[in-house]
Design brief:
The protein has helices spanning 12-29, 119-125, and strands spanning 34-35, 38-39, 50-51, 82-90, 95-101, 110-111, 136-142, 147-153, 167-171, 184-185. It is an alpha+beta fold and 187 residues long. It has one domain. The chain starts with 11 loop residues before the first helix and ends with a strand.
């Protein structure tokens, strides 16, 4: 009985059962495309625009030049204004987006999918240039097949915008001016 405590090895039938269970687990999991709850999705080749749906993945990169047509502040150089995962896609079917502006800038490239709650919220969350007080909001109908870029607004400390983080869309192609609705005051 004294020597029995020293022999704690697995018996050959126990070792066989362990290997069988391990092999079964591996065999059952090989066909899975999910790892830790994230599904593997196909990625189109570089330069190919994917349809705008939850499975689309476009070309990802770190930044993009600021659209100087929306702000005289950026006209002198390029200012990165987009962050997060940046995706390019082609709009599938016509869709209504929203755009905030001030003054008489009734067209522009930067849009949102959801109307901002207030002027102050739009200025901070979209990190708008100081000259854009988001006095007005307008509906913008983006036609089928239009190329867009989706990103998150980054904080613009030079403009006093410390928040950012809102989802934004940049038109990569010109759309007709008639697709920009009338500006409605935004409080």
């Amino acid at each position: 009985m004294i020597g029995a405590a020293k022999r704690k090895s697995i018996s050959p039938p126990g070792l066989t059962a362990l290997w069988t269970i391990l092999l079964l687990v591996v065999a059952l999991c090989l066909g899975q495309t999910r790892v830790w709850g994230f599904e593997i999705t196909p990625q189109p080749a570089s330069g190919i625009f994917a349809p705008a749906n939850p499975l689309s993945i476009g070309e990802n990169y770190d930044g993009w030049q600021y659209d100087a047509s929306d702000s005289p502040l950026a006209a002198k150089g390029t200012i990165p204004s987009a962050g997060g995962v940046i995706r390019q896609f082609e709009q599938q079917g016509a869709k209504t987006y929203y755009r905030v502006f001030s003054g008489d800038a009734t067209t522009g490239q930067w849009l949102t999918a959801v109307p901002p709650r207030s002027s102050a919220w739009a200025q901070e969350a979209l990190a708008l240039p100081r000259d854009n007080t988001a006095s007005f909001i307008q509906k913008v109908v983006v036609p089928n097949g239009t190329k867009l870029e989706r990103s998150r607004a980054i904080p613009m400390l030079d403009w006093g915008r410390t928040r950012g983080g809102a989802e934004q869309f940049k038109l990569l192609e010109r759309i007709p001016d008639a697709n920009f609705g009338p500006g409605v005051p935004l409080r």
